[in-house]
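If you are new to this repository, start here. Below is one unmodified record pulled from the training split, so you can see the exact layout before writing a loader.
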Amino acid sequence: MPATASGKGAPHAQRVRAAGHAVHPILIVFPLGLLTTSVGFDVLHLTTDRVSFAFTAGHLIAAGLLLGVVTAITGWLDWWLVVPKGTRAHRVGLLHGLVNVVVLVLFAVSWAMRLAEENWVPAWPALAAAWLGLVVSGVGGWLGGELVERLGISVEEDAHVDAPSSLSGVAASGR
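And here is the target side for that same chain:
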């Protein structure tokens, strides 16, 4: 079935999928959680002065960046293959992706600054980059929510509260 103007009904084969679901929404929790948690460990370092918290924050950023790149690749593929060109969803999807690239760049800058410090203890510019990255990630997350909840991207055409399991191989309509 061809994609409709809302992006619903796009062929499953075009999306990056696993076990019947789009992979991008599954993956976003990992970089977002890791990068957010790194900021929490920065706060713990600042309040306790324990070097291990700063060191852990650096490792969390590294892991978040790696998974962020994988997540971004799946998101860009879905945007390119599924979201109809010339639609508001296409524009919002582009902005969502670009904002999240800024998030990754801010955290990468923070991580690079930490690497130059003994025990990866961040100076204020590294902390500011990470904290700004966290704030910007909220904007990126809101835009992602807009794509799914308002614009219906990656929502099955016939989705309903009693649809069969994605693993069943049966369409959401039950047909």
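Two things worth knowing about this chain: The CA atoms of residues 109 and 129 lie 7 Å apart. The two ends are 14 Å apart (CA to CA).
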